[in-house]
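Field: COMPLEX_INPUT
Field: COMPONENT_COUNT = two
Field: RESIDUE_TOTAL = 517
Field: MODE = joint
Values follow.
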Amino acid sequence: MRPRVQAAALLVLLWLPWQAFSQAIPYTRPVETAPQENTIGGGYKTPAVQKPLPRNYWFQVFDVVLLAAAMGVSVWLVIRRRSRRWLVGLAIFSLAYFGFYREGCVCPIGSIQNVTVALTDPRYSIPIVVVATFFLPLFVALFFGRAFCGGVCALGAIQEMVVLKPVEVPRRIDRALGWLRYIYLLLAIFFALKPAIGRDFIICRFDPFVGLFRKTGPPHMLMIGGAFLVAGMFIGRPYCRYLCPYGVLLNWCSRLARHAVSITPDRELDCGLCNQACPYGAIVHMRAVRQDCLYCARCYASCPNERARAKRPLVAITRGTK
Amino acid sequence: MSQDLTRRAAVAALAGGAGFLIQKAHGQVVWQVNASRCLNSRLGEVGVEACNLCTSSCVVGLSAVRAVNEHSKCGRCNICPAYFNIASAVDEKGLPSEKLCPRDAITRKPIGRQDPEDPSNNFYEYSIDEDKCDGCGRCVMKCKEPLGLGSITLRVRYDKCLNCNRCAISTACPKDALEQIPLPEALKSGEARTG
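Field: COMPLEX_OUTPUT
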């Protein structure tokens, strides 16, 4: 074995310089400076170099306007019309636009870290669009609850689509897992506060669904995204309830909400159908918990009273739910 | 009532935070390759293999970083070290027989006044097909002192770039050449080669 290796090595050693000297041509640069149009002659025009611009600024503003509009529609559909069907339509639109078309960026969840960095690092430049994306859903939550979660958030919408046979997570486990959100939020802020060199945008890096939106990504993240969707068939919206760090902020804000999803006390049948319909454990003692309610309107869709009312004309519905 | 008050306080706090951020915010920021830091285009880095990290680490399918030939700075060489593999055998026309670009993204065409006697006296235009280029940086590495003038540099295509918070290339880059700068600045820096 050994002599053969030596012979091969010798051959390679002999072949290399031969290759270099016999084939390479001596190269001299003919020009020392770049010849311009008058030197080149023949009516030559220097072509412009392509400078592809990013998405037009006004389109980015349009995205923010659309975000605000979608939240407005979400509030109107859930609080006024109490219509689950139209809300699903809104969720499909949001998933298509914010998810697959805009590829999950910019989203308020990831912007937590941008905002943290911008607040602490004077040299970091944050786009205005990101600031608006971060604050808009929080303002809405202060008045109407988590309208962003329902039909607007692309991450929520993709999980909303796969809810198949949700099981009720035992209260204690639900509580315990809910703490993960706080840990995740603290970690995100911790990594954002690090100096620029060690900074890590973990929310974006470990976003389980962004790879699906972009249809490319690190294989382990795609697998985690798939796993979340499979789990989401039986546990309603696992990412939103147990991991979403923005959910923590929305949770705090929505505690103060004046109007939120409510199980109307005066028309109640005490049948508990809404309780069974809620896949997110957000109805406790027949009352909607506004900080946990994800604006899916399933409770209204399951309510015999609401169904009876929905057969009435639109004007009567909007007046009747006041 | 106290809830109303708390809500008002929260609205004020959020509005204050948003206002503070908006007054220091930039319109739009983009990632850009700093040519004076990029391993492929910075001077002095010769005789080494081209750094391939822009191609391999970008999250976009075909990397958002492409090589761009700034025509006004191009030497218009007959034997362009970025177009030809100048170490390959010479063919019957006296030109190297192999091209450097593994994806055949560079095209070469004679321009201006033609010299019928000696084609090596002509000027040539080298343009890079942006749809083929994946930013491997081989041509960038060759087009600089001592052989070239450094007209080819790696640049981020803003229409392809997803503007990731933590650009995957920037984390991989050994020279920390990717920086996030306001868009007008990035457009300006593309015109002048620094260092």
